[in-house]
Fold this sequence. Notes:
The structure holds two protein chains of two kinds. By secondary structure, chain A is an alpha/beta fold. Chain A contains twelve helices and eight strands. Chain A has helices spanning about 40-50, 80-85, 130-155, 160-180, 185-235, 240-250, 255-265, 270-275, 280-295, 300-305, 315-325, 330-355, and strands at about 5-10, 20, 30-35, 55, 65-70, 90, 110, 120. A five-stranded parallel beta sheet of chain A has the order 4-3-5-6-7, with helices on both faces. In chain A, strands 2-1-8 form a three-stranded antiparallel beta sheet, with helices on one face. Chain A starts with 6 loop residues before the first strand and ends with a helix. Chain B is mainly α. Chain B has two domains: about 1-45; about 50-195, no CATH class. The chains are: A alpha/beta, B mainly alpha. The interface between A and B is large, with 92 and 88 residues.
Amino acid sequence: MAEFKSVTIKKGNHGWGGPLTVKPDKEKKYVISVTGGGIDPVAQKIADLTGAEVVDAFKNPVPKEQTFAAVIDCGGTARSGVYPKMGIPTINTIAITPAGPLAKFIKDSIFVSGVTADDIEGNTGNSAEAVPEDASRKPEESFQTRETSQSDQQRGTTNADPTLEREFSSQEKTNGKSQNANKENFFMRMIDAVGSVAGDFVNTFYQAGRDTIDTLIKNVLPFMAFVATLVGIINYSGIGKILANILSPLAGNIIGLVVLSLICALPFLSPILGPAGVIAAVVGTLIGQQIATGIVPVQLALPALFAIDSQVGADFIPVGLTLGEAQPETISSGAPAILFSRLITAPIAVLIAYAVSFLL
Amino acid sequence: MQVLTDIATGFIGLFNAGGKVFLSYMTGIIPLLIALITAINALVKFIGEGRVNNAMSKLTKFAILRYTLLPILAVFFFTNPMCYTAGRFLPEKYKPAYYDSCVSFLHPVTGLFPHANSAELFVFLGIANGFVKAGGQQAKLALLYALTGIVVIFIRGLVTERLSLYFFKRNGNTSILDGSLDINSLKKNDAQEA
Lengths: 360, 194
């Protein structure tokens, strides 16, 4: 059998993370290309230099246990987090920085972005054998440490500094035990119990607040800035009137909405329209503008919500099914089933929403 | 000079208009989002992942639960994109249909529970903002969006289930069609992972 070589992948222009050193072995022998529209040149070059096999994950899904690297082109946050979470070194051809709900798994030891074929170098020596395994273990470890630090925090007081708090609470724990053993002071133990419950409560809410602000800054505000600028330009420049002429035959009546839903559900279009809901959000905002000005009837808001969304998740099928621990055969049969199902269910959804919209 | 000044005024006006829209989002949408998402985040932490997993593993037998309650729980508690992991409670043949119904609920849920998919709020908000400006009640739209969404994901689950069974048959994946799932072994795996 062929001998595998390791390659080093550096971040590209404006990229983040890395450098990663990956090397296939007998079990992990595939580099997967999760890029849509064939095999990405980056994946091809990694395969060429390592002597491994490259696979288009949309056409031939392989189990994650046999994958030593994943090449993705994810401008959003989902795919960029999913593969690092599964412990697979991830190479993103689009320059992004860690964000989204899985940001904590996106570490520079397992993720590199903005990569082009020029950023990949073959290593001549066999010095870096153990690196990919190390890298694949790291995110789980760091996740665990995060977990423990969280629970420590919950046991501790409401101090703001997590490191101080951890030391403090571990000291407290040992001290507390010996004291409890020495004095059987019921009253003190009561206070202890109440304090720890209250501390738990406060800290859980505090962490929840921290998570909220985190997601607000990383996910919500950037999109809000984008939409607000877009809406401002459309309103101020008068493009809105032109768009209204284009959109009103589609969005202004129920038949147009059914047609719109069918267009979004076309099996060759839907995976392109899907990513991160951006297209749906932009079209939704445009239709919302028309509803506000009265060109599109208010009642059509509900069916419109379904008409613009018939492509939802069509780009994410292989990844989503992998997260559900589906076998490769399930993915290859399930993907067309989902895409064709949309052609049937999308117009039905719009019509149901139309019927319900009389309640608005 | 007058022409140049006009052009400059128009240029700044474009972004002034954008800034005003942004400010209206900040004062209109963000305060509610912060309080709501914080409360739900805390609730999810209090209930805990283990209990939700336990409840979900019992919902797999009947189609009506499989394509309504299971995706709803998964989306509410695990949010996008970890909600798809609940697919592991299902036999292989139902996984594509579960994915389809789960992903189709990711936008209907955002009207009432924005924490579940906070990165993609504007699919709902874009239309809802216009709806409110035209005199509608956002809460009513959000509620009907979620309720209609539940009906739609159920139908979508059933249709995709039929279609994927057809594709399994056509591609000769009989092992998937026959395979059932031993939930007990899954629970063991979960315990080991924990």
